[in-house]
Amino acid sequence: EPEVTQTPSHQVTQMGQEVILRCVPISNHLYFYWYRQILGQKVEFLVSFYNNEISEKSEIFDDQFSVERPDGSNFTLKIRSTKLEDSAMYFCASSDDGVPTTNEKLFFGSGTQLSVL
Amino acid sequence: AQSVTQLDSQVPVFEEAPVELRCNYSSSVSVYLFWYVQYPNQGLQLLLKYLSGSTLVKGINGFEAEFNKSQTSFHLRKPSVHISDTAEYFCAVSGENSGYALNFGKGTSLLVTP
């Protein structure tokens, strides 16, 4: 079965450093998402991306965050200057269909655990 | 905007016993409801969904959930659990007000023991 791949599975960084979290969505998918889960809290929506631009973003997704699809296969989340509170599990997801009622076609990766020290 | 509350952070249960994981939602518009499961070291996997129609929905691995509009609930049930059901379970909602992005609950950790 096709799957969304995220690397690395665990990343440790110093506060103030830039990090890039990488995702390889399913190959024929067109819609891409980032979610995150701070330990003990809800999984939160960050951003959705379609046709090489952000289609929707949450309040969490401020200027220190950016997303990019640098080539035909990768989808990255960059955090420009990490803060302690950015420590979380970050999930990438992709879908071949952006129609709302078919969120069941959303496939999630296994996540990258980001630890900011 | 829509939101969900998962009332139990942890649910311990013995193998072959029934289980119910509770989820309540809040919304002023029509919603779509989902349950996801996360096994250790894996991604989120869709268990089942309610979009419209029959309020009792059946999912994978013998799970089912019932949409109750009057109680604004979408509880997940299984009549007999297995050790392999040990995982984190997330209830999620989406709808017009959220731009159809998924809003997740905090998750319920189901621990099945022999």
Broad CATH class of chain B = Mainly Beta
Strand residue percentage of chain B:
over 45%
* Element string of chain B (H = helix, E = strand): EEEEEEEEEEEE
Mean of the pLDDT scores of chain A?
A: 89
Radius of gyration of chain A: 13 Å
Low-confidence stretches of chain A: none
Overall geometry of chain B comes to globular
Distance from first to last alpha carbon of chain B: 41 Å
Q: What's the average pLDDT of chain B? A: 89
Briefly note the structural class of the backbone of chain A: mainly beta
CATH architecture type of chain A: Sandwich
CATH H-tier superfamily of chain B? Immunoglobulins
Overall number of domains of chain B: 1
Oligomer: heterodimer
General description of the model:
The complex is a heterodimer of chains A (117) and B (114). Chain A is an all-beta fold. Chain A has one domain: Immunoglobulins (Immunoglobulin-like). Chain A contains no helices and 11 strands. Chain A has strands spanning 5-7, 10-13, 19-24, 31-37, 43-50, 53-57, 65-68, 75-79, 88-95, 107-108, 112-116. Chain A is globular. Chain B is an all-beta fold. Helix content of chain B is 0%, strand content 53%. Chain B contains no helices and 12 strands. The termini of chain B are far apart. In chain B, 40% of the residues are buried. The mean pLDDT of chain B is 89. The interface between A and B is medium-sized, with 27 and 26 residues.
Structural descriptors:
heterodimer; A: 117 residues; mainly beta; Immunoglobulin-like; seven-stranded mixed sheet; four-stranded antiparallel sheet; 49% strand; globular; B: 114 residues; six-stranded mixed sheet; 12 strands; 0% helix
Short précis:
The complex is a heterodimer of chains A (117) and B (114). Chain A is mainly β and 117 residues long. Chain A has no helices and 11 strands.
